[in-house]
Amino acid sequence: MARIVGSITTSHVPAIGGAIARGLQNDPYWKPFFDGFPPVREWLARVKPDVIVLVYNDHGLNFFLDRMPTFAVGAAGEYRNADEGWGIPTVPPFRGDPALSWHLIEALVAEDFDLTTCQEMVVDHAFTLPMALCWPDMKWPVRTIPVCVNTVQAPLPSAARCYKLGQAIGRAIASWPGDERVVVMGTGGLSHQLDGERAGFINKEFDLAFMDSMVTNPAWATQYSTVELVELSGTQGVELLNWVVARGALPEKVRQQHANYHIPISNTASGLMVLEPQG
Amino acid sequence: MPSSRQPVPGTTIFDGEQARKGYALNKMCYSFNDAANRRAFVEDEEAYCARFGLNAQQREAIRNRNVLQLIEAGGNAYYLAKFAGIFGLDMQDIGAQQTGLTKDQFKAKLLAARG
Q1: What is the pLDDT of residues B64-101, one digit of tens each?
Q2: Which residues of A are known to be catalytic?
C-alpha cells in the first residue's frame, strides 16, 4: 500500500527563480527565505519519497481563460517547464507517473470530484520553484503528479471543497497497491496582493493563525468563503487553497517537522511548513 | 466603493464579469509567454493590440502602462505581469504605481508588515 509520508507547503514567488539564477541565496535580502530550506532537504533525505503530488495554481502558462478547470490532474509521462514571459531560466523536465495519476483520477471521480485530466501539461513556477528549492541540483529523484487548482478566475473552489479534495487524495494514495512513499506539496500564498489600490497588502496575524491551524485545527480555513480569504490574505494570498488541499491529504493528527515565515519576498509573506502524519 | 460583487476595498476580484470584459486584453498578455510575440509587440505596439481586438479603453491603458486602468479594463494580475515583464518592471514597480508611492516607499510598506 502506498503511503503519504508528509507534506511540504511553501510560497512560490517568480522572483525566487531569478534569485536562484543569480546565486543570491546568501544575499541579505534572500537569506532568511533560502535558509528555510536546508531542513526540508534533510527531511526529504530521511523520508525518501518516490512520488510528489504537487498541488498548485497555474499562472497562465498551461491554461488560458478560454478553458479554466476548477481542478485538473496531470496524467503525463513527463512535464516540461516553459517561458512564462519574464525570463526566468527554465528547469529540466519532470518525470510523471501515469499509472498512479490514473488511479488518482479514478478514485477522485468515484468520490464525485469532476476533474479535468491532462495527458499534456506544461508546469510553471508554482510547480518548478518549490521543486528547485527542495532539490537545488535539479536532478529530480522523484516522479511527479501535478494537481492544479483554479485560484485565478472567480468563482474559486471553496476552502471546504479543497480540504475534501485533499482528504480524497489521501484515501486514493492509501488505496494504491504499490509501495510508493508519497509527499504531498502545496504551493502559493501566504498573504499578498499584486493588484489594485490595496497592492502590497500583507496580514501577518492571519498567516500565523493559518500556519498554526495547519497543525492544530486543519479545517480552520474552511470557515471562510473565498471572498473572505481574499479580504484576509489578498487577491493572490488566496493561493493558500493549495495548502488546504495538501493538508487535507494528511490525517487529522500531524507533527510539525519544520516551519519558516518571512516578510517580504517580492510582495509576498513567504511561508514554509513540513508536516508528518502522527502515530 | 465596495459593492456586493466587489466587497473588498481597493480590490477587483477577477470574476466572470471581469473575465468577459478583459478577454482580448488577457489573451494578448497570454501571448507574451512567447519571446517572438514580445518582440512583435515592441516592434509595433498598435498593430499588435489591433491583432488581438483590444477595445479603445484597453489600448489606452496599454499605451499609458497604467495598471489600475488595465485592471479597470478587465486585466488579470497574472496576465498583466507578463505585460509588465516586457518592460523589466518587477512587482514593487507595479505596486508603487498602483498605490501612488515611490518604489522605496512601497518597499518600506512591505517591510512594515513585519510589525
Answers
A1: 999 999 999 999 999 999 999 999 999 999 999 999 99
A2: 125, 192
Task: Say whether A227 and B8 touch across the interface (CB within 8 A).
Answer: yes
Which H or E run contains A55? strand A51-56
Residue B41 sits at the chain A interface (C-beta within 8 Å): no
Is the interface score ipTM higher than 0.85? yes
Q: Give the closest of A61, A87, A197 to B10, CB-based.
A: A197
d(CA B96, CA B84): 13
Report the distance separating Cα A177 and Cα A163, nearest Å.
Answer: 24
- Determine contact: B82 vs chain A, CB below 8 A: yes
What single DSSP character describes residue B75? -
> Which of A227, A236, A263 shows the shortest C-beta gap to B7?
A227
Res. A66: pLDDT tops 80:
yes
Q: pLDDT for A167-192, tens place per residue?
A: 999 999 999 999 999 999 999 999 99
Is B82's CB within 8 Å of A84's CB?
yes
Looking at the complex, does the CB of residue B95 fall below 8 Å from at least one CB of chain A? yes
| SS3 label, residue A213 | helix
Q: From the CB of residue A135, how many other CB atoms can be counted at a distance below 10 Å?
A: 15
The whole-angstrom separation of Cα A20 and Cα A2 is 33
What the block records as the C-alpha cell of A101 is 495519476
Tell me the sheet residues that pair with A186: A9, A55
Question: Rounded distance, CA A193 to CA A269, Å?
Answer: 10
CA distance A279 to chain B (A): 35
* A197 interfaces chain B, CB cutoff of 8 Å: yes
> What CA–CA distance (Å, rounded) separates A73 from A119?
9
For the full predicted model, state whether its pTM sits above 0.80: yes
Segment holding B25, helix H or strand E: helix B23-31
- Just give the CATH number of B16-114: 1.10.700.10
- What grid cell was written down for A161? 471543497
Chain A residues touching residue B8 (CB < 8 angstroms): 198, 227, 230-231
**Domain edges within chain B:** 16-114
Give the C-alpha separation, A246 to A57, whole Å.
13
Contacts of A203 in chain B (CB under 8 A): 113
CB B92 within 8 A of CB B103: yes
